[in-house]
Amino acid sequence: MSIIPSTSDDKLQLYAAIGGQERLDSTGLSAILLNRGGRYARRDLFYELEKVGFDTVISLEPQPVHYDIDELKNRFPFVRFLLLHQAFSIGEQINLAVSEIDTQMFFVMWNDLKFITGGNAQRLVNCFSNLNGNGHGNWDSNSNDNDNNSNKIKRLCTIPVLQNSRYETLPTIMAPALKRKKVRIFFHDHNIEGLPSIYPFDGIGIYDRSRFLKLGGFDPAFKSSYWQFLDFGFRSFLWGEEIAGTQILKLLYEDKVPPEDNSVNFDYSHFYMKNIAPVYRRDNAYLPLRRFFNFLSKTKNKKISTAWKDFNDYRSWVSENGTRWHCNPKTLNDLWKL
């Protein structure tokens, strides 16, 4: 359940990095640009990112590779293009991009988004570096402070306001409800500063890099981005981190808003065993043996011996990380009283 290749040879097998030899600024904020496909004006997009003032930009390039990369890498030397050699989940792409940056914070966005408000890297850093962890930032639009405030950051991820192509604000504050070991997600309007959200919609948000790495990033075992994001969010809150929204940053989808697929499959079982099945008591979490029969019923196509081995793998993972739990899943219900 590790997230990032540990050697250069591993990276070479996964992708090739082109460009990005220069640093545009020194704000401490980089951008990770995910590619949804489509015929978007890439040159205009990189011009916009240049105006925002990110230190560097990592552009994920799935196969087939765009024909214009040679031209773009010369025109925008602060952009590093990662040419992916195989298909990766969204979370895996973010993990790979994080391994290529060295800034204190990074902003995940898509190539079909454009800035409406808050499109200034230095101002965003000034704001989010001073968040007190309770959804309130010290926002000063005239501030030019370039100090590194990494010791002040207490939030894992800050998510922006998102609007559709008709400039309608999307309900992207997600609140979990847990009943009888089943999880439901309710969508709420993003209309108050600092509202907590169980995960960043579409992966979009400004992340603290050190907290992201300490958490373990996105789990590559998931195929569905929905369960991958939900696992990331549950793990964040169970382990004492915070994901919350801000009114300062607003972006617009230029095309259709992507649907989420929450189908119940292996990904759900994987999510359940990591986040719902463990029991938290006395500042420690563990996975009781009695959970095996429930796990077996969720993996009907597996032999008992295979299911037992997989179950013990989950028990080992929970045991290794047990002291990182701060609460149990039921406690999360009380955090959302919207």
If you had to describe this structure to a student in words, what would you say it looks like?
This protein has 338 residues and is of the alpha/beta class. It folds into two domains: 8-253, Spore Coat Polysaccharide Biosynthesis Protein SpsA, Chain A; 266-330. Helices cover 31% and strands 22% of the residues. It has helices at 8-14, 42-52, 69-75, 90-98, 121-128, 209-215, 225-238, 266-276, 291-298, 304-321, 329-332; strands spanning 15-19, 29-34, 57-61, 79-84, 105-110, 113-117, 157-163, 173-179, 182-188, 205-208, 243-253, 279-281, 284-286. The protein has a nine-stranded mixed beta sheet with strand order 1-4-3-2-5-10-7-11-6, sandwiched between helices. Strands 8-9 form a two-stranded antiparallel sheet. Strands 12-13 form a two-stranded antiparallel sheet. Helix 2 links the parallel strand 2 and strand 3. Helix 7 packs parallel to helix 8. It is globular and about 60 Å long. The protein starts with 7 loop residues before the first helix and ends in a 6-residue tail after the last helix.
